[in-house]
Specification:
Blueprint (H helix, E strand, L loop, with lengths): L47 E7 L3 E3 L3 E2 L2 E6 L5 E10 L2 E2 L3 E8 L4 E5 L4 E2 L5 E11 L2 E2 L7 E9 L18
Parallel strand pairs: 2-12
Antiparallel strand pairs: 1-4, 3-9, 4-8, 5-6, 5-7, 5-10, 10-11, 10-12
Length: 172
């Protein structure tokens, strides 16, 4: 199980410090442990990372689809509101504004855009989901706020029929 702790070093700003790591096994029997991707950085005030865009790869015309995502708060400020839009073949949706939430630093939040989309033609569509504002302002690191996907829309579903083959001998 991986843990993603975050420790504020604000009290040591401007000083030269050393950071050490020590692991104590809870049961006293630890064969190994990993330490990876250690970062020391200044936190931006309102910075999130869109981590997941949940959407099917295939669909049928006239079906309604919802745009779902999950972001992680990497900012110094608690996220109390955000704005998200999706695009279908370059056409942007109306913004979905979520407020009255409380997402602390280093925690995630899942959401579903309030405007579902119905595909009217059988083709492959280019999609994106993007967080455009956090706490009423533009995210200072917009590069990690958009995820792109494709969906193939067909005219109909066909029921698959299984075929079972029985092997009786090598001469069959």
């Amino acid at each position: 199980e991986w843990f993603y702790p975050s420790i504020s070093l604000n009290d040591y700003a401007g000083q030269t410090i050393k950071i050490g790591f020590r692991y104590v096994a809870p049961d006293g029997d630890a064969d190994w442990w990993n330490l990876d991707n250690v970062m020391v950085k200044s936190l931006m005030q309102n910075e999130v990372d869109l981590q997941e865009f949940v959407f099917p790869e295939y669909g049928v015309i006239n079906d309604s689809f919802e745009f779902e995502g999950t972001f992680k708060n990497f900012g110094e400020n608690e996220v109390t509101s955000f704005e998200v839009v999706y695009t279908v073949n370059g056409v942007e949706s109306d913004p979905y504004i979520v407020d009255g939430i409380s997402v602390a630093h280093n925690t995630t939040y899942s959401f579903t855009h309030d405007l579902p989309y119905t595909f009217e033609n059988a083709e492959i569509y280019d999609l994106s989901l993007a967080i455009t504002k956090v706490n009423g302002v533009i995210d200072p690191v917009p590069d990690n706020n958009t995820i792109y996907r494709d969906i193939s829309i067909a005219t109909e579903y066909l029921t698959r029929k299984p075929m079972f083959e029985v092997f009786t001998s090598s001469t069959c």
